[in-house]
User: Fold this.
Amino acid sequence: MQQKLKLAIAGIGNNASALMQGVTYYESLHQQGVKPEEWPGIRQSVLGGFSVFDIEFVAGFDIDERKIGRPLSEAIFCGENNYPVIVANLPVGPSIMRGIAAEDDVAAVAEALKRSGAEVLLYGLPTGLQQQAEWYAEAALAANVAFVNCTPEKIARTPEILARFTKQGTALLGDDLASHFGSSVIHKGLLKLISDRGLTLQSSFQVNLGGNSDFKNLAINPSSKRESKMNALGGVDAGKVEVIPSGGFLSQLEDTKIAYFNITAAGWAGTEVVFDAKLKVQDSSNAAGVIIDLVRVAASQQRMGLGGMSQEVASLLKSPGM
Ligand code: NAD
Ligand code: NA
Assistant:
């Protein structure tokens, strides 16, 4: 069996919690002898030679004082994090280090990445921090660590950055993960169905509601996410389709997300068809179910020395780099 994937994480938020707890959950199913075909919620049990639980968390970075200095297994329950507890016994994990708050911090984070032996850096800061995303990408390049961008910030879509990763042989997968069964994949599928069946779209909207810190932030900083969510719908008429990344922060929902969809179309002889739907999901599980594939592809690419973006994962991203 090949060596476990050594993963570093920037941004110890709900996605990190869902990922670490989920990896531990699948490892315990494996130890109980449950066959991979029976594991719930997995697209591919083995990808790039790695099983879902072949992940070793080797470094974590945050700027929240409530998380710095704590082991990953504790930090994932600190601060604003509100992903539920789903497993009892977690491996302790690395102690969370201070992340990048200014350009001067890039070199120290690059050094820490090298020391940790990380192969992949998972970037999951709050949405809207283009500068910070670029600094972490610089640190990854300096340490020759693959970079996976979970956020809508333009890293894989910035041609000069992508070219540097490609030239150096360092993997870069981004931008903005498309959740496992999230509002983008569902909305895109519904709009395609309307068009495939020959109906004429008149108007459509998607409104998302949640109670985690991502939703709190998206209610104030929606622009990069809104643009990326429109990209994810694949060439729709922006005059007819509206997407609201966070229709409001509802603390009662914690890390669950509710999305409402409406599609109004004209059918035979111009008569009206109205479709309304509601989706309710554990928001950060929906991210982890895709992160697990992105990090495994990134690591296998890295081990083969293949730099840049892999089109194999384009469907797992809302705004893939070319
Ligand atoms: P979160 O808000 O729970 O966590 C973000 C973490 O980043 C926090 O711990 C915060 O303290 C930390 N942080 C802020 N500035 C930092 C810095 N300079 N260095 C290091 N850490 C810093 O967010 P999340 O739910 O874990 O999501 C992470 C990202 O993934 C968000 O941008 C989100 O929009 C994106 N995303 C999430 C989903 C999903 O959850 N379904 C889907 C697609 C994209
Ligand atoms: Na999340």
The pocket of sodium ion (ligand 2) is lined by residues 14-15, 214, 283-284, 287 (CB under 6 Å).
